[in-house]
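Q: What would this chain look like folded?
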Amino acid sequence: MKCPHCLTSYHPQEHISDLEGDTDFYWRVHWQKCPSCRKLIIVLGKYDKSKLNFVGSFYAYPKAFSRAPISKDVPDNFARDYKEACLVFGDSLKASAALSRRCLQNLLREKAGIKPSNLSQEIDAVLQSKQLPSHLADGVDAVRNIGNFAAHPLKSTSTGEIVDVEPGEAEWLLDLLEGLFDFYFVQPAVLKRKRKALNKKLAEVEKPPMK
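A: My prediction, written as structure tokens:
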């Protein structure tokens, strides 16, 4: 997982401490320490009164999940949904995941050229197209499995719906969007700027530009 304090990736070693139940839920504290920044990561988990079924969770410390700023090369219509998904992450994993799913669906339609359908079928289509590098293809494919689309069909048919999320689902979606932004927007923009700079140098020595 990625540390919400310093954004360093590490292998989680989670500890769980039981609290007690109230009139609505049974509560547990999930905590671990980042091996890089040595800060604690504390998550409150909600379960039904039987203590068997996970209901939801939210970060107690830190309150909000730190994320690296995205590149200015990402268009506003995608950047807005992503930034809002980051903003609400600490307060509502459901809302964050809903915004991320909607952003993912719009990205697949506009940049991957996928015919509009439901998100599950659109994921199938982009995987069959073989246009994504393997690490991103695996990440997109995992969205259905981590999100348990079979049990929550609204995640596929109504991507903006506020529905229950699985542990790690909201964070996974944000990580995936960052990778897709880099693939579709950032790297092409970087290459374009490098090509422009090279052509300027070639022009200065009266050589033909790159095609």
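The first strand starts at residue 15 and ends at 21.
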